[in-house]
């Protein structure tokens, strides 16, 4: 997968897996990773699917309606990519924390839903429920931050709550931060994510 890897300055710090939103690329979230922890390593990946030229991490049938077969396939592809990258770049595959926005948050959620050991934690910024009716893996050692907008027309508040309760039901510790905003990323949301990260890692 097309990506950027930046080795962190402090080997005890995690590797941030950066996952952009629809139409974005592997450069988008680099400043955000720096705001959260500028000593961590970074693996920033570009989605392998193109929707009319816009990179995404999996196909969708319509706005908010996911192609589940592709989602499962792409989630496995991303998991294998992370494992291979951990060998190539010599980082600990058990110390990876995702930072995903929108479509990137959805594939990060899908990694959590499908693989017990893919992520140690995740900052899911404007996520949806990636897939329903799955038996979720054990998540008792996983911490998740959710950034959500009360007026987000794409990731509706009730879906944010559903996602939080699915993750908690599987054992994850979840903190949800609400903004009086829509789907866009805000500085205060990133500051809250940084505080959550400081507390948990
Ligand atoms: C998705 O397709 O993953 C969500 O609708 C968010 C987005 O617009 O990318």
UniProtKB/TrEMBL annotation:
Residues 77-191 form the Dienelactone hydrolase domain. Gene3D superfamilies: alpha/beta hydrolase. GO terms for molecular function: hydrolase activity. SUPFAM superfamilies: alpha/beta-Hydrolases. It comes from the Bacteria. Pfam families: DLH (PF01738). PANTHER family: LYSOPHOSPHOLIPASE-LIKE PROTEIN 1, LYSOPHOSPHOLIPASE-RELATED. This is Carboxylesterase. It comes from Gottfriedia solisilvae.
């Amino acid at each position: 997968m097309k990506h950027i890897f930046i080795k962190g300055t402090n080997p005890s710090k995690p590797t941030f897996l950066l996952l952009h939103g629809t139409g974005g690329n592997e450069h988008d979230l680099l400043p955000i990773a720096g705001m959260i922890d500028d000593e961590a390593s970074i693996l920033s990946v570009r989605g392998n699917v193109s929707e009319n030229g816009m990179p995404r991490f999996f196909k969708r049938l319509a706005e908010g309606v996911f192609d589940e077969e592709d989602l499962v396939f792409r989630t496995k592809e991303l998991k294998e990519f992370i494992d291979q990258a951990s060998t190539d770049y010599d980082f600990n595959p058990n110390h990876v924390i995702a930072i995903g926005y929108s479509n990137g948050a959805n594939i990060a959620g899908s990694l959590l839903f499908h693989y017990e050991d893919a992520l140690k934690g995740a900052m899911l910024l404007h996520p949806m429920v990636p897939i329903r009716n799955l038996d979720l893996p054990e998540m008792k050692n996983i911490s998740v931050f959710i950034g959500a907008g009360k007026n987000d027309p794409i990731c509706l508040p009730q879906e944010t709550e559903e996602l939080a309760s699915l993750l908690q039901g599987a054992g994850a510790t979840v903190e949800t931060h609400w903004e009086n905003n829509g789907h866009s990323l805000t500085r205060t949301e990133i500051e809250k994510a940084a505080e959550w990260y400081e507390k948990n890692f």
